[in-house]
Each structure stands twice: as structure tokens, then as C-alpha cells.
Design a protein that fits this description.
This protein has three domains: 31 residues, no CATH class; 151 residues, Glucose Permease (Domain IIA), CATH 2.70.70.10; 79 residues, no CATH class. Helix content is 6%, strand content 33%. The strands form six sheets. Strands 8-4-5-6-10-2-1-13 form an eight-stranded antiparallel sheet, with no helix packed on it. A three-stranded antiparallel sheet has the order 3-9-7, with no helix packed on it. Helix 1 packs antiparallel against helix 2. The longest helix has 13 residues.
């Protein structure tokens, strides 16, 4: 998707000429020394490279996204467009790829995070931004949601930058080849587009096993498995798992869902494709929606029993 990044920011560093002018006035009154004035205008040689942050995929733990680029992305080997695999990109939660401070917001639907040591990351096309300027965020902290701002195909545009000129700002001409979860990516429009599974804020434990299943219709997700007929806030619909091939993590016995002669009392824990306002992205859907199996069965597409939660 062809996009351009506009640096119409809400929080930019002061221009160097303005800083120098202020320094000169203060020097007249003896309030600013020559050494201080020199420090106010760092030169490119003063930029000291800091250790590259441990950048992770900017999505929830265990989500899989495909990294893409296109001819004219400019530079098309450094900018990444990210599309969700096995789920819907639109509305997906975007999280910080490393700890830092939110320093800029700009169009289209974008923000910049300063990670310290000269390192920055940029996120574009979000339909909502849930952080404020100056806010400190940890790796995996929610930033907003993937949208259609400035694009016709929902995706996240992502960049990594290193401040080579020492002005404490990441600019487009300071973009670097992104390193995500220890792998450097130099994409080509004609090359193979990799799929990456997020290890962001996974807690250091082993990744949960995934069971791939086919569902014959969109399935509502709930925070509990005993919500059939319950209209209380505890049983509010959390969102939706879309029809098609999806992964589930485990199963739990709960209220029976019955439609005609079809029924199932198993509930499957999964990550929803669409999340309701205030809802949780991880919720239970009824195994009734499994396409390949019969009553009271909860197996994956290979016929394996889905493990208990």
C-alpha cells in the first residue's frame, strides 16, 4: 500500500537556530557560558551510538503477521507493512516494540517512540491512539489499533530509526534496516515476504501450543464458559472470531450450546479477530462452531484432541 509519512507532529524538538539565538542572548547577561552554548548545538560527531533495543514485533504475544513492502516504498528495503495472518488486521491491537517514551504524533494515524540511545520506532495508519505525548511505555504496552487512516488496506506501517546527527529526533533519512526479535530484515518487493510470530511481552515462558481449526460461521467470544442465557455484564460479548481457519489454545467444559440437533458443551480459548469496545482480545468461543466435527467433539483439523485449559 502506497503511503507517505507526514511529520506534522504535535511535539517536536526546538529548532537549533532558535536554541542558539536564545543562548546568545543569555550569554550577553552572563547567564550562559560558551561551553553551554556548544552543548546546545550538537554536531553529528557528538552522536554516540547506544545499544540497539530488543525490538519485538509490535503485536500481542503469539500473533503472526506477514512483513511486506512494495516498489516505491522508498526505501522499500527498510519500511515494513504488516498484515495479520490467521486473523483480521483491522482493529488489531498495536503494542510498543520496545520500552520508551512517546515523543511525537503525526498523520496518518502515527506516532514515534524514543527508546533512548538514539533509537526510535514509528507506527502508522492507526485508527485510534491510546497513549499521550510524554508517556513512558513498556515493551508490549498498548498504543492503539490498526486502522484505515491514510490507506485503503488495513495494515501497520513500521520503521526503526537511529539518530545519526545527534538532534534527539528520528528522521526519515535516518531509517535503518529493522531488526525484530534478533533478525534483520531487508525486504525486496520481488522477494518472499516473511511471517513472524510475536514474542512481545510473552513472559519468558514457552509459547502456548496452537490447534488450528475451521469454523463455519462467525463466533461470539465470552470471558467465561457459563454465559448461555446470562445477560449480566460478566457475560457481555467480548468480540468475534471470524469464520474460517483460526487457532485455539485449549478447551474447557461449560454451558451447552444447542441449535436443533447439534450441540456442544466445550468452549475454546482463542484470540478474537474483532474486539468489542472494552472487551478482551482473548476469550472463549463455543466448539459448536467447529466445521469438521460432530456433537460434543473438540478436535483440531488434524483430528487431535484439543488439550484442556
Amino acid at each position: 500500500m502506497r503511503t507517505s509519512r507526514s511529520r506534522r507532529a504535535f511535539g517536536l524538538p526546538l529548532p537549533k537556530p532558535l536554541v542558539l539565538a536564545v543562548a546568545a542572548v543569555l550569554a550577553v547577561f552572563g547567564l550562559w557560558t560558551t561551553s553551554q552554548a556548544a552543548q546546545a548545538a550538537p554536531t553529528p560527531t557528538q552522536a554516540t551510538a547506544g545499544a540497539r533495543p530488543d525490538f519485538r514485533l509490535p503485536f500481542a504475544c503469539n500473533e503472526t503477521w506477514q512483513l511486506q513492502t512494495y516498489q516505491g516504498h522508498n526505501p522499500d528495503d527498510k519500511k515494513l507493512d504488516m498484515y495479520r495472518v490467521g486473523g483480521q488486521s483491522l482493529g488489531a491491537s498495536v503494542v510498543a516494540s520496545a520500552a520508551g517514551t512517546v515523543t511525537e504524533r503525526f498523520e496518518p494515524g502515527g506516532l514515534e517512540i524514543n527508546h533512548g540511545g538514539g533509537w526510535f520506532s514509528v507506527y502508522l495508519h492507526m485508527e485510534s491512539i491510546d497513549v499521550r505525548l510524554g508517556q513512558q511505555v513498556s515493551s508490549g504496552a498498548p498504543l492503539g489499533r490498526v486502522g484505515l487512516v491514510g490507506t485503503t488496506s488495513a495494515h501497520l506501517h513500521y520503521e526503526q530509526l537511529y539518530d545519526t546527527n545527534g538532534d534527539n529526533d528520528g528522521e526519515t533519512d535516518e531509517m535503518v534496516y529493522p531488526v525484530i526479535q534478533g533478525t534483520e530484515y531487508r525486504l525486496s518487493p520481488s522477494g518472499t515476504f516473511p511471517r513472524v510470530t510475536s514474542t512481545n511481552a510473552c513472559g519468558g515462558g514457552p509459547a502456548p501450543e496452537r490447534f488450528w481449526v475451521d469454523t463455519f460461521a462467525d463466533a461470539p467470544g465470552y470471558a467465561a464458559v457459563d454465559c448461555v442465557g446470562d445477560t449480566s455484564p460478566r457475560c457481555a460479548v467480548q468480540g468475534k472470531l471470524l469464520k474460517g481457519t483460526n487457532y485455539v489454545l485449549c478447551k474447557k467444559k461449560g454451558h451447552e450450546v444447542r441449535v436443533g440437533t447439534s450441540y456442544n458443551h466445550w468452549w475454546l480459548l482463542t484470540d478474537l479477530d474483532e474486539v468489542a469496545p472494552g472487551g478482551s482480545g482473548r476469550a472463549y468461543v463455543s466448539a459448536y462452531y467447529l466445521q469438521r466435527w460432530g456433537n460434543n467433539e473438540a478436535k483440531d483439523n488434524d483430528g487431535r484432541d484439543i488439550k484442556l485449559c
